[in-house]
Each structure stands twice: as C-alpha cells, then as structure tokens.
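HOLO CASE FILE
Compound: LARABZUK
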Amino acid sequence: MVTVKICGLRDPDMVAFAAREGADWIGFNFVPQSPRYVTPEAAATLMLRLGKAVPVALMADPDDALVMQIARLGFPVLQLHGQETPERAKEIKSLTGRDIWKAFGVRERSDLGQIGTFPDIDGLLVDAKAPDGAAFGGGHGQAFDWSILKGWSAPKPWLLAGGLTPDNVAEALRQTGAPGVDVSSGVERIRGLKDRELVRAFIRAAKGRPDQP
Ligand SMILES: O=C(O)c1ccccc1NCC(=O)[C@H](O)[C@H](O)COP(=O)(O)O
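Model generated. Tokens follow.
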C-alpha cells in the first residue's frame, strides 16, 4: 500500500483528522520562515493527537541545539530540507540517533545525481526544486516533470513530493511507481491551512480508494 505523509499541520484537530483518515506520517515544520511553522512547544501539543501516525520533524539547516530539542520531543524521523551536506546529515544522525530523511529538489534528470552522495541517510524525498528567488526550499505547490524518474531506482526508501494534489496523485504514482507521497500545498485552500475535504480526498486517491464515503 502506498504510504502518505501530510506535511505542515498546525492545528490539533487537523492532526487527529489526518491520522484518522489514514495518514502514515504527519510532518511538523520547524522552518521559521514558513507559513506552516510551529514552535517546538506547539508541536508537543500537536503530537498528542497523532493516533497511529508517525511524526516527522521538518527542518532546514538546523543547528545542534534545535535538532536536540526536537529529538527530545520524541520525533523518530528528522527531515532535512535545507542545504545540509552528507557530512552534516551523518552528524545529525549520530547526535540524535534518529532516522534522517533528506529532501532533494529536482528539475532535471541530472539533479538525481546528488542523492547517491548521501550514504548515511535512512530515507529521502524527491521534491520539486524551489522556484528561483524563493526564501526556502519546499512547500511551493509546484510539480516537476515526473518522467525524469523513469528507470531511476532509489537507493533508500523514498517519497515523491512537489505539487501533488488529490487530482494528480494517482497519475503521479502510476508514472513514478513511488512507494509513498508527501503533500503540503495540495491539501490547502488557504496557504498554510489544511482543508479536511482535500486531506481526505488526497489520502483516498493515493491509497487507491477514492470512491469510499
Ligand atoms: O512546506 C513548507 O512551507 C516548507 C518550508 C520550508 C522547507 C520545506 C517546506 N516543505 C517541505 C515539504 O515536505 C513539503 O511537503 C514538500 O516540499 C511538498 O510541498 P508541496 O509542493 O506544497 O506539496
């Protein structure tokens, strides 16, 4: 079964709703410039509503103090979404003992080359490259050309991300064979605010049960 990560939740009831609807992972965003940012204190409250969903902490170029603070909250997975080097990813892994997922922004086939230089990560996201001039590297609601993944085999467990929506996720999965998907903007009507109907539709479309009430 395809796994689903819903990223950038800020509201406890929405966390509980996404978990009930079958989200496998729920991402909390610790990038202060993001409209989806939550403080570590707020995340601790949100984490009380996870049900069976697994929390993922999203950070961009975090310092040691932040990674330790987040790891202490109990996150089993840290998702790195900045300019972290392979060495820094390894360092964060040893410092915290947590699984490390690294997000890679891609636009063309050659962008996939960087992935092999991160031997110590536990998983990865293949995401769209941020638009030129963007202040941060993800959550822009833009898809990349999925055909660049044709014939590529991921060295680690991976999620497809970037511009996915309830309407295109089934086709994205068909074209890429991704084992899992990650979404943020595509389940929002207002930037930064998740929408229940879209969250439900996305999870059902990704898991291949779109018509169930
Ligand atoms: O979502 C953000 O605001 C964000 C900010 C800074 C770094 C990363 C961010 N999001 C990372 C994610 O994992 C998103 O879910 C992923 O980029 C897909 O986003 P979208 O295209 O909006 O579905």
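CASE NOTES: The mean pLDDT is 96. The helical segments are 12-21, 40-46, 64-72, 86-96, 169-176, 196-206.
CLOSED: yes
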